[in-house]
Design a protein that fits this description.
Blueprint (H helix, E strand, L loop, with lengths): L1 H8 L29 H17 L2 H25 L8 H26 L14 H5 L3 H29 L3 H28 L3 H25 L5 E14 L6 E17 L5 H5 L2 H12 L8 H11 L22 H32 L1
Antiparallel strand pairs: 1-2
Helix pairs in contact: 2-6, 3-4, 4-6, 4-7, 4-8, 4-10, 6-7, 7-8, 7-10, 7-12, 10-11, 10-12
Length: 366
């Protein structure tokens, strides 16, 4: 009996079967599955899933159809009004051109809306809440909005190609419109997603996102036009010699000035305000479309006129303040500065939204 109790009290021992057996106990659990995804891969996967869910809903297609039709319906009355109510042969070409321009503006508004919107259901979220998505920062809604924008751009470009064929207009206009629409979806969805992640309160995020979006889409051109009287001035001028003008546009290219001031001329210092309009989607489209289509057409004059406005009175009136202009000015092209300004604003919102999301995560952990 004593031996039995002793055996029962002794700790159990196990014998390894087989010589040289080594058992390695890893520090963590390893079920043999694939390695865990990184945070960027997780956000990308969820964003793609959000975009697929949105594309599978009838609401996306209804909104896209209405937006494309609205762009065309806005362009047609404007063209008819410009033609005096008649229907000359060039009306279809003008309609195609203005529809392309309107679609770039429509894309910017849709991008703002989609950037501010988060799907209400999804992995890690309860129905009717968006707390999990907000904690991931602006990248997820930004990528999801760009996915929807890519599909919208493809559909809108197909419609523009139909208009180009039916009107005999240049196909390059549709290509330029597609590029600008993609740019606007990148920029304006970043503004919306960044504002939504930046602000703690949903109403404030919506107001901020739409305010900045509308300023870039409409308000900048309106501000530039409203400020024209403020940049008007009467400047002294001297006699101009050896004046050379651009063929076709009649813009001043070079001239020499006599020393004496002979009078005054009305000038507009448009170089002070043109940068406001440079970031407008329609202005960017006009600049690129005018450069893409060669020869005489309805928009080829626009890039040169806008660039001349950016270079100031020296392109409008010769010998202002007796200053000569031997060579054309080499200012930064508006077709570059406009998109650069848009991307800078988008970067600010993405950075601010990401920083706010990280701050909320740290607060939740602590």
């Amino acid at each position: 009996m004593a031996e039995d109790k002793k055996d029962a009290a002794a700790p159990s021992s196990y014998e390894l079967i087989g010589p040289g057996v080594i058992i390695d106990f890893p520090d963590g659990d390893d079920d043999g599955g694939p390695p865990p995804e990184g945070p960027v891969a997780v956000v990308l996967r969820l964003a793609v899933q959000d975009a697929r869910v949105a594309l599978g809903r009838a609401r996306f297609w209804v909104i896209s159809t209405i937006a494309i039709l609205a762009s065309w319906l806005v362009a047609v009355p404007v063209v008819l009004l410009m033609s005096g109510g008649g229907y000359p042969p060039e009306v279809q070409g003008w309609g195609y051109l203005l529809t392309s321009a309107c679609l770039t503006l429509t894309a910017s508004l849709l991008a703002t809306h989609w950037g501010l919107s988060r799907l209400r259901t999804g992995p890690g979220q309860d129905s009717g809440t968006v707390d999990h998505a907000r904690s991931s920062g602006p990248l997820r809604p930004w990528i999801a909005a760009m996915g929807r924008g890519l599909v919208f751009t493809a559909v809108a470009t197909a419609v523009l190609l139909v208009l180009a064929v039916s009107s005999g207009g240049p196909v390059a206009i549709a290509g330029v419109a597609a590029v600008v629409m993609l740019l606007e979806f990148v920029v304006f969805s970043a503004i919306g997603a960044g504002a939504e992640s930046w602000s703690e309160r949903r109403p404030a995020a919506v107001v901020t996102g739409w305010l900045v979006g509308l300023i870039l889409a409409v308000g900048n051109v309106a501000a530039a036009i409203a400020l024209l009287p403020a940049v008007r001035a009467d400047e002294p001028v001297s006699v101009a010699l050896n004046v050379q003008r651009d063929y076709g546009s009649e813009r001043l290219v070079s001239y020499e000035c006599a020393g004496e001031i002979v009078g005054a001329a009305e000038v507009f210092h448009t170089e002070r305000i043109i940068w406001l309009a440079a970031a407008n989607p329609v202005v960017i489209f006009g600049l690129l479309a005018g450069q893409a289509v060669e020869g005489e057409n309805s928009i080829a004059w626009l890039p040169g006129e806008l660039q001349a406005a950016a270079e100031g009175p020296s392109r409008q009136v010769a010998c202002v303040n007796a200053e000569e202009m031997a060579e054309p000015a080499t200012e930064l092209p508006l077709s570059f500065s406009g998109p650069a300004l848009q991307l800078a604003v988008a970067g600010v919102f993405l950075a601010a939204g990401g920083r706010a999301a990280r701050r909320r995560q740290q607060a939740a952990v602590s």
